[in-house]
Amino acid sequence: MAILTASRSPCSLSPSPRSQDPFWVKKRYSVTQLPPITVTSHLSTVHEAEVHSRSRTITRTPTPVHSVTPSKTSGDSVLDESDDHNLHAALTSEKTSNTVQSEFGHCANQSYRYISQHNPDKPVAEDEIEEPPYYILFTTYFSYLLLVVIGHLRDLLGKRFAKSSFIDLMIHDGYAPLVSDFQSFYARRLVQRVNDCFYQPISGVAGRTILVYDRYSEDFNRTQTYTGTTTRALNISSYNYLGFAQAHGSYADAVEESIKRYGVSACGTRLEGGTCDLHRIAEALVARFIGTEDALICSMGFATNSTFIPALVGKGCLVISDEHNHASARIGVRQSGACVRMFKHNDMGSLEELLREVISQGQPKTHRSWKKILVIVEGLYSMEGTMVNLPKIIELKKKYKFYLFVDEAHSIGALGPHGRGVADYFNVPPSSVDVLMGTFTKSFGAAGGYIAGPKLLINSLRMHGHSGPHAEAMAPPVLMQIVATTTSIMGVSSVDDLATSKSTSHQPTFKPSTNGVAMSEVEDEYLHPGMVPASALPTWFSIPSSLADGSEARERIRRLAFNARYLRAGLKKLGFITYGHPSSPIVPLLTFNPGKMLMFAQMMRTRKPTPLAVVVIAYPVTPLVTSRVRFCVSASHTKEDIDVVLRACDEIGDILDLKHGKGKRWPIEEIVKRSVELVHSI
Amino acid sequence: MSAGNATLEPLLTWLTLILAQLERTFYKVPGSAVIARYVRSSHQNDPGRTVLELILIVFAVRTLMQSRSRDKSEGKLIKFSEKEIDELIDEWTPEPLSAPLTEWEQRDLASVPVIAGPNGPKPKILSTGKTVINLASYNFAGLAGNEHIKERAIETLRKYGLGSCGPPGFYGTVDVHLELERDIADFLGTESAILYSQGFVTISSVIPAFCKRGDIIVADRAVNFAIQKGIQISRSTVRWYDHNDLKSLEDVLISVEKDRRKRGTPITRRFIITEGIFERDGEIVDLPKLIELKHKYKYRLILDESISFGSVGRTGRGLTELYNVPASQVDMLVGSVANGLCSAGGFCAGSTIVTEHQRINGTSFVFSASMPPLLAVAGSEGISFLRNTPSALTSLQENVRAVRAVLEKTEGIAVVGHRASPIVHFHLKIPCIANGSANGIATNPTTVMPPPTGPSFDYEAEEKILQDIVDDALANGVFITRAKRLRGQEMVETRPTVRIVVTAALTKKEIEKAAGVVKGSVAKVLGKRKA
Ligand SMILES: Cc1ncc(COP(=O)(O)O)c(C=O)c1O
């Protein structure tokens, strides 16, 4: 409890200063006091919300966020039962605005917002790769060498003197070993040493904070022993970009209603008796969200790639793939039987060179021309934090006539002023990409994936993709989470209600789509189809007004953009080497040395007063030398949460000698103070 | 020592001379002074750096050599000028990304019924608003719509939210996933289990996690599509045996061993891959015999129980319970939580070594988000339902008998599969025969093609007739479906069938009535065809 009053306590956000903020008052009013309304009758509420938000923009006063008042603890059943950690009170304090602080932090200060958008006057910047000093590379190579040598020595001696523990690696009883010692060497001798950083079980919501099971190992990570206790840590690891991982609030309410109405399972495949009306509704919404003619939904993101790519290409086709593409796309390509070539990560020059070669040479041996060429790239690369240079690829596409497949697993929802992914970020029409694929696991807090494109293509995929007849259809609760979140990002327009519903016809002049219910500072003039008509939603879906007018989700998008830029800029100013695009919510911090990576994770995990849950990744997911820590920023984080992360990195970075970046450094206090300036400067 | 020095002396002077000569020529090369200065200064600052740079140079040279040799192995590139390349690019016209669906495919897609509201034994069809009897969806034990499961799902939602927002390795392993894994392992009696977030991708990941290039897979000719894909990715050597014919399996096992002896190659990993209940036709494999063969010839068994788990055996434990074989005898037992427990996902049960290996090597486990916690809880609840309600599986078996009794008496169709199988397939008795030759070559374990069985069928014509039956049954209040296939992508084209999924959620009377409707539709459609 003592930490609550400490001035650096990260997560104790005071309710008192906020209550002076007109924005907050209004918001609370609209959410907690207004009864939820059904779609067909929400027009007047939308209008009201518009008035509110207008007044909000005018009378806005920045809230002092640094002032700290002890938060009051209220009984939150979910967190009370298992959590006795001292952070509990701070992190789970009050339940405001229908959300829980441990899942979604409150941040009322409107200056902690940013609109992520490409500046069309500037060229797309190349990814710059900062190199560490040589001695870092040297020691890194050396430590791998050491690990490999020691590993082989242990194997050599072990097989001679401790046969019993190697029995699974040798031919015994007429069976070849299930995994050969060569194949498993990496897992046994390298991964096992860092095993305590992975597969850590959690409980509860992977939101702003996360409840991690405590464990220790007595046998060098061969097995883990659980103490039975848990620790609540600040979560900068989950793909919860927009903070929709919530057990409370309007989205969870909608999902609960769907379970009551639909049960938990679709009970079959899409083509054989597992399609329900919710699938249709969700697919239409997703198509609208992405801005394409049609879309299909698959119950798993991985399978969206691995089972639908074979329906796009086959023998005689060529797939050109970025070298850092996700495993699911690689599996899909391998199953398709098409030829594959890779180009250097995000290097448009290398792509063009390759295109010239493959088109002019044709197929290997026969030199026949390719049936078609499909270029597969990702919107945002999950390990690098880099963003695809979409304008350049589209330019190349015009010249070289290939088809373009963009995997927006990480970018959809997380990028662009309207959360519509890379196309939105660069303000290019979604129709300029042939196949837009994405997943719902990340930004939407759901599961599964989608493919969006022209109707002709989507129907062909429905029939020829492996998932259609063979994989289970998406479960109704998951569909509802998708429906609720995409609806709230788009906002509900009532235009077509005017024609059908008499009860609302007394307000014929209200046109949300042009007025912009959105009261945003920037005028909405973008290419994606804007709001969703109420008729496109399930009739029983009661939408609170803050969701219907899109303001709630817009806050999320802008908070995410701010947090992402702030963390990256802050780490740079502290002197760390990071990879990726300034607007990317994935921020890899390079540790190079695998030992340091392990230490970093452990020090973060055991840090007082706020433990931090971080993800570390190393070879083979990354190149050998560039082991890294990967932060995934979320809209559920407050500015103070990012301060905590920066402070932790600052201290640990000094201890582990991780600050090898070039450029001017700032002390941590200055970074924290001038955060807004910093965010706008990069 | 001095003697050694004396003999070395001429050699040393010669070396110095050579070095001096080299130095002179080196300095004659333009720009060489810069390099020399650089090396000297860098060495002074940091001797370690020189070593490192030397290593880097060696590496760079090696990489260069490698890439050159790779180019060579890829065959000769034709040399073109830039202008020629531009012309070739201009000339090239790719095929469209997707061909439009054929008329039949369009009809097929449009005829998929959409259910309004919850799925279950008696769902409402969106287009007609009529309530129908459902013999198409997987709901073996009648878990769909179970109120207790819904309640538990809502409780879970309120504690865990919906999505897990991360792959299992990165804080995506939620305690309820581990609980479901434990429940499955306990239920089946294996050491442990691992949970995948979709049923279909489970076995296509399990197979390549263990079967590598050079390993041997012996598989049934009629394995389902997911297994085919897993085998394709594994790049192992595959031998095929005749569908559900364990005699043929043994012959293949013997010939593989003979082959190995002849070549004198060391023992590699060997796997038998087959299904418990075949998704394709409802046949059931003779598990005790299969286990015997596997032990005799020292193979590991990968058994796909996607249909049989949750649907056969006294309490739905699947084939191992049906035949009273300990599940630990099956090395990798793959099942579906989606089909068998009316939730989502799939699992692989086996020894701890087997499951732990997959936690690093199961591609779709490692590289995909874990399943939503509430679906995992629904799975756990499904298991406890099965444990406590053996009557569900008894009535399922009664219903299966009732359906078969009616269909077997129906003229014009042939019911296939095992009599205990909860999925019942039937195809047309009188085939539509396509013009052309037989569809196979002589039986041969190296090819998946079955031995020739006569003329090939006109798949599309048969599909159309079966679809007419399905449509007619739906119009009369019974929802059944054709077994949908990816024609052109399957290794072997199978005869089109209609698939009936029997459920315990309907009474015997309702089932008999429904089967009667199907019988009527068959008679009507086939009667028209004759006329
Ligand atoms: C680029 C990309 N595609 C696909 C996926 C798979 O998605 P899911 O986790 O929903 O299976 C991921 C997940 O990590 C990804 O990063």
TrEMBL record, chain A:
SUPFAM superfamilies per record: PLP-dependent transferases
Compositionally skewed regions (Polar residues) per UniProt: 66-76
Catalyzed reaction equations: L-serine + hexadecanoyl-CoA + H(+) = 3-oxosphinganine + CO2 + CoA
Native organism taxonomy: Eukaryota, Fungi, Dikarya, Basidiomycota, Agaricomycotina
Alphabetical keyword list: Pyridoxal phosphate, Transferase
Cofactor annotation: pyridoxal 5'-phosphate
An example Gene Ontology molecular-function term: serine C-palmitoyltransferase activity
Keyword Transferase: yes
Protein name (database record): serine C-palmitoyltransferase
Annotated Aminotransferase class I/classII large domain residues: 234-484, 551-648
One Pfam family linked to the record: Aminotran_1_2
EC number per UniProt: 2.3.1.50
Similarity annotation: Belongs to the class-II pyridoxal-phosphate-dependent aminotransferase family.
One GO process term, biological-process aspect: sphingosine biosynthetic process
Cellular component GO terms, alphabetical: membrane; serine palmitoyltransferase complex
UniProtKB/TrEMBL annotation, chain B:
Stretches of the chain forming a coiled coil according to its record: none
Top-level lineage group: Eukaryota
GO MF entry, a single one: pyridoxal phosphate binding
Keyword DNA damage attached: no
Pathway the protein acts in: Sphingolipid metabolism; Lipid metabolism; sphingolipid metabolism
Domain Aminotransferase class I/classII large positions: 131-516
Signal peptide: 1-20
Enzyme kind, highest EC tier: transferase
Organism: Pisolithus tinctorius Marx 270
Name by which UniProt lists this protein: serine C-palmitoyltransferase
Cofactors named for this entry: pyridoxal 5'-phosphate
Family the entry assigns: Belongs to the class-II pyridoxal-phosphate-dependent aminotransferase family.
The keyword Magnesium belongs to this UniProt entry's keyword annotation: no
GO cellular component: endoplasmic reticulum; membrane
The entry's keywords: Acyltransferase, Lipid metabolism, Pyridoxal phosphate, Signal, Sphingolipid metabolism, Transferase
Protein EC: 2.3.1.50
SUPFAM superfamilies for this protein: PLP-dependent transferases
Single Gene Ontology BP annotation: sphingosine biosynthetic process
Lineage of the species this protein comes from: Eukaryota, Fungi, Dikarya, Basidiomycota, Agaricomycotina
